[in-house]
Design goal:
Blueprint: H1 33-47, H2 57-67, H3 73-79, H4 90-94
């Protein structure tokens, strides 16, 4: 609509970790990065809505019609993730030679 200097805003879902990470809102002329972060943190805290996902009718429907119950094998298979270390291969190490 041409009303903003930005084309998009990246939203990251890491609590207290990624607020205004690289490539996001830039400070206004005369505004320090620290001031901007404080304003963003204030806006974030004032506008965060804490909700229990199990009170959401869509989530209730998913469990009752498909996932059975929280912690079920289906829920673990489709909703949970696991993290593991990435082992570098010798091929990737040779690229630097």
């Amino acid at each position: 609509m041409g009303k903003c200097d930005y084309h998009f805003l990246e939203i990251m879902a890491c609590p207290s970790g990624c607020l205004n990470g690289g490539g996001q809102i830039k400070p206004q002329p005369g505004q320090s990065g620290k001031e901007l972060i404080q304003l963003l943190e204030t806006a974030y805290v004032e506008n965060v809505v804490v909700a229990d996902p199990f009170n959401n009718p869509i989530i209730k429907g998913l469990y009752s019609e498909w996932l059975e119950q929280p912690g079920s094998e289906k829920a673990k298979k489709y909703l949970h993730t696991e993290y593991h270390p990435v082992v570098k291969s010798i091929t990737s190490q040779l690229q630097n030679w």
